[in-house]
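Example record

The entry below shows one chain as it appears in the dataset: sequence first, then structure tokens.
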Amino acid sequence: MKRFFILTFTTTAALTSMAQNEVPDTLVTTQHLHEVVVKGEKPQIKGHDGIMVVDLPNIVKDKPVTNILEALGYLPGVIDNNGMIGLAGANSVTIILNGELTNMPLQNLYQLLYTTPIDRLKTVEVMYTAPAKYHVNGAVINVVLKTPTPLDGLQGQVRAGYNQSHYGSYGGGIAATYAVKDWTFDLNYGLARSKSWNHEETFSNHLFDNRRTMIEDNMHRISECWSNTIYAAVSYKNFRLTYNGQIKSSAKGSSLSDGTLGNFTNNYTYDGPINYHNIALRYSSPIGLTVGGDYTRYSESRNQSLFQKNDYLLGELNKHDINRWHIYLDQQHQLGTWQLNYGIEYQRADDSSSQKIDESEGFSGTTSENVADAYIGLQRSFDCGLSFNLSAKGEYYHNTYQHNWNFIPQLGATYYPTPKSIFQLNMSTIRVYPSYWELRNGTSHINPYSKVLGNPALQPYLNYSGQFSYIFSQKYVATLYVQYADKATVQLPYQSPNELSLIFQTINMNYTKIAGLNLNVPFNAGFIWNATATANIFNQRQKADRFHDISFDNKKWIFYGELNNSFRFSQNSPVSLSVDLTYLSPSIQGIADLSSLWKVDAGVKWRFGKKRSCELDLQANDIFNRWSPTMTINHAGQDYRMKVHDMTRNLKLTFIWRFNGFKPKATEIDTSRFGTGN
């Protein structure tokens, strides 16, 4: 956004001359100069210590986005990974709030960000290599929220919306902040009634008993629930108490199969609500010491009943009951121009999940997991424009099935010879652990032909990555990246040679290799048209010597591209339009080949009312319903194809009313690893 400053210079000179025996003369002259227009552009991206600081509120100001989750899709380097937030050049990305890890399952965190208004956002920090003090390995997106002051008074917004896809969903929420003396209060509540639908067509040419059997299936899935999302925080001086939770009630689902083997119905019901609760306490002392801890409880009880027409086949009772405790201690010292930080961390999780299939016991008992680590880190900035952070962490991991030691080094560096040229280098190592449910020796039936198996032998894996970025003119970004994941995991269908059965099971591959280049280029035509083009081209290779009883070595060049556009009729127009285009070329997932994807999104934003405190947003996503892949497997006797018809096309209408405009009163200036697999 360009700012225009009009400066008018008025010069007045008064000259007085005095001579002996003369009368003083005074001359006053006034001269008016022409207007001088100075154009300046607000920086979108800054860098320090390997951290990319992005002015995201400025980037999305004309977009029909109402919450932080939608805004994150416009971050440089962010890609849409089937509805999940991904970062080009990173194996995975963790989202934290105000520099603190939330420890929330991914779905819960997304729901919280969805209910948090964009007006609360101050800035976003992108770290391909997060320093160890954040207690996160690998890439991080740090969402920094505005801090209220006593001058701001009570601020907030009320939101209501309706989403029409195959079925209609609706919801609303309130977000508010308040500060008085040494106290600050933060509340975010969202209530949503959601109903989803998807459609899968599968063709399995199964080799069994020396002959091929074609099994076709046409499956429709439906799920619905009420969801309550709560985030509440209170701060007093250096103490902060936070609660976040989600309660899903009236949850149920079903799948209807019609195919070669007959007609089947799979019903899912829940014995009571699905509960997630997390409470955290944090204290930061004036001497650089930070002490914190949190407790998480997750529970659900799901009944599953499988019918062929009206005939009962089998029933399952799956229970998740997970308790997790987490404590940490961090210390930071400023030693002249050096910053030294070190700390310890401990986490324990008890998984008391169980499964019962009809009258037979599937599995039960408690599985414990313990993770302990210690780290040390250094930070330094030099006058030449170089800054860096370096950390090393030693980690011990132990659960019922395995234990190991890990050494995790991290490096992030920034060099800016001029304000318009910024170079960043990041190198990281992360340890990725399987979900609690994947490690259980259980079986979940989709229908009589397809089932999901647990894998107690599943191993955590190490992912090594490096990124080199060049930021030009504080807005153009080019990133070269490489990744190597040793024993990376994947879940894919497998046609068993011993039975007429399709098996889904998470297994360890030998490795995954990725090397690529990501470009992010914003441009504009005055205030009328603002756009950002993203191009990500990379080579991916996935190899496994033992995928059940076969092997594969799959590789491909892949292209991901985005063009985001926003339009305004005038500089102060209350109405803005957006059109976004996205394309993903054919890709791979282990032994499987995935088809290309593309979509078109469009939206309109209208701000109205007193001081434009009201906002109406209309957004159409995936207008042509093309963001759904086709999976094909044709290798070593495996012959399988699945076409997914997710209803990603939807029309969303949102109304927002802001009270106090999230602006100070004095001026008009803005100051998973749970059972779900997350």
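Notes for this example: Residues 86 and 92 are 6 Å apart (CA to CA). Residues 2-39 form one domain.
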